[in-house]
Amino acid sequence: MNFSTVLENTIYFLALINPPSKILFLCSKKPPFTRNQLFLLSFRSNVVALAILSILTSIGTFLLVSIFHVQIYSLSVAGGAIIFFIGFTAVRQGRFFFEEDIRGGSLTDISIMPLAAPLIAGPGVITAAISATSIYGINLTILCLTIAIAINFFLMLLSEPIGKGMEKFHITGPIIRITGLIVTAVAVQMIFSGCENWIKHVFAAVT
Q1: 67: phi > 0 → left, psi -120 to 50 → alpha, else beta; which?
Q2: pLDDT tens across 113-161, in order?
Q3: What is the total count of domains within the chain?
Q4: 3-state SS of the chain?
Q5: Which of 31-40, 63-72, 80-89 has the highest mean pLDDT?
Q6: Residue 102 in this model has a pLDDT that exceeds 60
């Protein structure tokens, strides 16, 4: 197993996962999560995301296309729409979710949706994982995904001190709004890319 290949793919997956956006997501909660809540959210979301990515990496094309009849471009549009809502909320509210979304003991719901999917196991990561499998094989791809998600998990655990540091300088809201704008732009690009691939698919079918 080539170490440079593992390192290269791990960094690539980590960039697609984008840990800073998850840190800011967790920092935007008012009042902040307790340490226990933060650990549970981080652990559950990353474990679920790794499970999703591992399954899709192993049988992704067959599962999506043959069983659910869902193309990658459809996943891109749907995931983009969800991420757009999250980013738009951040731009307007200075937080990545509405306060009512976390009331009533719904931490498990948040850890799965939107944290695990689509924020961690998003369409971009899924597409990259499926593509990497065809080049490097399932074992190496899952290894790189596991390392990347483990790093993301530990970075998410640092959300509390990072949040306190930003609050000290009163920059949490502005940074979250800027990040929300970027997330919204990424979501729009995902939707456009999905539509573009769909149009290519339609033209290919016609010709």
Answers
A1: alpha
A2: 878 987 899 877 887 888 788 789 999 999 999 999 999 999 999 988 8
A3: 1
A4: CCHHHHHHHHHHHHHHHCHHHHHHHHHCCCCCCCHHHHHHHHHHHHHHHHHHHHHHHHHHHHHHHHHCCCCHHHHHHHHHHHHHHHHHHHHHHCCCCCHHHHCCCCHHHHHHHHHHHHHHCCHHHHHHHHHHHHHHCHHHHHHHHHHHHHHHHHHHHCHHHHHHHHHHCCCHHHHHHHHHHHHHHHHHHHHHHHHHHHHHHHHHHHC
A5: 31-40
A6: no
Domain that holds residue 112: 3-206
**pLDDT of 13-30, one tens digit each?**
988 888 887 887 888 777
